[in-house]
Amino acid sequence: MEVKNWMVARHRVAIAGLVFDGATGKSIAGAQVEIIDKPEAYEKKLALLAACLGNLGKEVERPDTVRTRCDGLYYFLDLPEGRYKLIAYLPKGHFPTKELLSEKEPDPDPYQVKGDKRYGKAQQEATVSYKDGLGKLVFFKLQPTGVTGRVITQANKGAVLLAEVRVRGSGERAFTDAQGQYTVTGVQPNDRRKRSLLVQARGYRRAQLDVMIDEPGACKQLKDIELIRENA
């Protein structure tokens, strides 16, 4: 992967990379990447830019906050040399895609307010230096929130194949494999309230399991779900 292919005319790519799903490995479009700690030289540059544009009555997007493209790619241009700290997360749908430079400085942990808790967050540090002529590649892996476990028969504790496990009241679901294993991802945390998993398979009675999912970005291991045969 060559940074030179990502260059924009008359600009220099300083930090670039991809944001991808930690469970599937697929790139994530629309993820937010923010610089939350920066060298003093960059802080002064942003302050000067905001003052100049303010005097002209113009507004501009924050150059230290970007969204990933449809292929999961992001990049920051023309950063002064120095050490940076970045955070990546999936933003909630009602937050605007553009943030203006006239607004306050990014929060040290914007994920707590703006983050979609169906995914966790990721932080990375990068040092920008132009001695080698290339930008810094920084990749982010966002872990989806979810549950994992096994569906078995109550009679002989054998695995149940192709049992459907879904979250009640939402569209997240998964099917068990030959070992009875399932993993449901992209689940909204409980916020201290229980969520219900509905489990059904051909030839078995439907079962329900109440769970607490309070840690964003974690896949919680659940106890085995035992199904009873319909003719039992």
Q: What key phrases describe this protein's structure?
A:
disordered N terminus, 232 residues, single chain, four-stranded antiparallel beta sheet, 2 domains, Immunoglobulin-like, mainly beta, 2 helices, 16 strands, elongated, four-stranded mixed beta sheet
Helices and strands in order:
Elements: E1 13-21, E2 32-37, H1 40-56, E3 65-67, E4 73-77, E5 82-89, H2 111-114, E6 122-128, E7 136-137, E8 140-142, E9 146-153, E10 164-167, E11 173-175, E12 181-185, E13 195-200, E14 207-211, E15 219-221, E16 225-227
Parallel strand pairs: 1-7, 1-8, 9-15, 9-16
Antiparallel strand pairs: 1-4, 2-3, 2-5, 5-6, 9-12, 10-11, 10-13, 13-14
Brief sketch in words of this structure:
This protein has 232 residues and is mainly beta.
